[in-house]
Design brief:
about 950 residues; alpha+beta; 6-stranded antiparallel barrel; 4-stranded parallel beta sheet; 25 helices; globular
Amino acid sequence: MSEKTSKKTTSSGDGTKLVIVESPAKSKSIAKYLGEGWVVDASAGHIRDLPQPSDLPADMKKGPYGRFAVDTTNRFDPYYVVYPDKRKRVADLKRLLKDSSALYLATDADREGEAIAWHLLQELKPKVPVYRMAFTEITKEGIARGLENVREIDADLVDAQETRRILDRLFGYEISPVLWRKVRQGLSAGRVQSVATRLVVERERERMAFISASYWDLDGTFTANEGKGAGESFTARLNTVDGQRIATGRDFDDRGQLKPSAAGKVATLSEATATALAAGLQGATFTVDSVEDKPYTRRPAAPFTTSTLQQEASRKLRFSSKVTMQVAQRLYENGYITYMRTDSVNLSGEAVTAARRQATELYGPESIPQAKRVYKSKNDSAQEAHEAIRPAGDSFRTPGQVSGSLGADEFRLYELIWKRTIASQMADAKGYTATVKLSGTALDTGGEMAGRTAGFSASGTVITFPGFLAAYEEGRDAGSEPAAGGSGSADGKDAKDKRLPEVSTGEALTGEDVIASGHETSPPPRYTEASIVAELEKREIGRPSTFAPTISTIMDRGYVSKRGNALVPSWTAFSVIRLLEEHFGKYVDYDFTARMEDDLDRIAAGDLERDAWLQQFYFGTGSADDDQLAGLKAVVENLGDIDARAVNSIPVADGITLRVGKFGPYLEKDIPAGSPEGTDPERANVPEDLAPDELTAEKAEEIFATAGPSEVELGTDPETGRAIVARDGRYGPYVTEVIHEMSEEELAAWMEAQPTEYYKNGKPKPKKKPAKQKPRTGSLLKSMTLETVTLEDALKLMSLPRVVGQDAEGTEITAQNGRFGPYLKKGTDSRSLETEEQIFSITLEEVLAIYAQPKQRGRGTAKPPLAEFGEDPTSGKKVVVKDGRFGPYVTDGETNITVPRAMDPESLTAEQAYELLADKRAKGPAKKPAKKPAARKAPAKSAKSAKK
């Protein structure tokens, strides 16, 4: 391996000092603080990486690097190449370095930044002193501290990042091909993405297996009759009958049964008994049994880490993890916040002082505690950066001071970070929680429940000193517990600031509006982006830099989609996870993945040797028969037979199975006993918008009942003699021809009949199989259905595009159907048609008349929106989906974003539309390259990339 330290050599002169960072925006911000004598430029991210094996030099493709671009036989030596689009950038940096007296590598202060710095060092090969400069904020103070604490490149951090990269290459390149063969082409497996997908799939399995339980309780309104609280009313909920606790949702398991811990200890009310008890309590006298006050204290949350920032931005700002990190990146690069990839909750001494000073100025001296607050990370190996995410500088700018210089999304995220940081150094919120217990005896009108004693309870929390709540209150996900130090009401509802009247033990109360209400237990909530990030962090899977890319990857791969904020797995994800669990169980095990992260941390700390660890991971330490000792290579080589049909099959009901096919999921019924040989099973496509937990046995029968025929034979093409059929496909109904496929015997006979060809050395060439014919197809017009389409229609559709004729210059003009409707095409000039029927009926004369008119670009009659939603959370303007020249797009009047091909514009939800706009805003406007004066062409240099 090459030396991974920055070697200091003799200066080449008194030239300027060159500072290299990752992004152009960051370089501009830093340049402001360095002044004369310094040149700041950017690498624009990574400059080199492992190439695809197909891109290796010809002489290396058959060598040890040929499979992974990593030599697994020689200490896992990687072969790096400079990205083709970065060669000019590297050349420009080398040119700047020639006139420099020193090189400062100022990439980000994490493992990835350390690796970028090392790659720059390897490619630039400087002959001047080299310094590694790191900082967590782009401010005058931050840059000054960075210059005061320059160091050499940390070889251990580089090793850790390089190990992660090689590990991901081995994992993906060994396991993904298995998915291609057994599930579908184009799928991928990843060390963290597969585990994240498994979490989402397991939660959906829990929802599918969930059986709801019913339970009943009572709510009543009670009024104090005497004392200071006379005339005041409050609500309370039934919690006991004759001293025995009433069952609530938490007493039932996911199978709809009482948990063993609750069996025999709680009473379950039916609708009849609850209604009878409510009737018996109307007009009954109630007595206060006890009044209890407890002090209430709530502590502020720690400053933001990457994980908690993504979670809170999802809850409060409705940002996806990807958008959060894009916005945070811009805030950091422009000097508004500290580095945004960190799992540390620590604040520097200057930051603590700034936060306490600002809290005192805004909320008074009593708003801060006497002692400074110190927070400790849950993860002992928090080394991504050494400070939490906070406003930059030794004194913080308030949101009001930066509002004029930030965009809407940047301002909202900055405000969130500022509030959280200030609140983290403020005093606890103080108050008290009062709990009142009361009871009454059911009257004779209660029927079978007459004479039973019903106990009710009510709680309320009153904040007497807001403390940090004056600045900020942490959000939480649905179904989660109250924040640490908080308190909820006895009935599980948030009782903050619910003040109860002053009553005393033994006091009589009047009960009114005692109502019985039924409840159903709910399945476990699906993960949201916020909650899955929290779960990954809790399990110590992944690191700050991986959370957002992991979520984006599993969504881009089609494993997970969003319904509102919830993450819903696809049926393909079910197949992939089943295959991985059954054949690669260790590699999707949560604890195993977490231990890998711990090992990478140990490599970063210098406590573990990179080569030995990779050797153990890939080649193992024992027998291939022992799954825990075998390496990845042995596991893949000893997979044995994998039943692809079983992997892609999920039982739905007796006799009904869901299959994950090449073109999407479908239902299949068992062939009835006694059916003639060759009978095909009944099949029906599963609607794309149907979540897995919604596919019940009843729903499956409904799909079969409402589905049209999956295939209709229309007749025979008189020219080819082939059968023509109409099918219901994943993307809609279509017609196609059935091409006979050779049987094994026919193929063998065809191969035998082919003449043998020979190489120059006399050896016979292998015979090639016959080229597979691609059937003609055609989508049905909107006016056609599987039931109404005819053979004549089908032959017309399969004949498209239709040649209408030629213009005066002899250019051919065709009529055809496209993704966005029917159109004419003459060379590169396309014109829209009004109806699909015109494709077959329009004449050459009519076509020439259309082309004689000037082409309209946006001057036609305005089309109505394809869909309309509410106001965008950021801009506050109405969001609509329109049909544009390049396809459907979402707009709020200010920002436009094309609807991705993977999304159906007709089923687009409001949340998806808002997220698309937020994602586009986060990327910022497209930057046009700056015009440069013509320069004298430099002599050509070799672009060959060197191995490290």
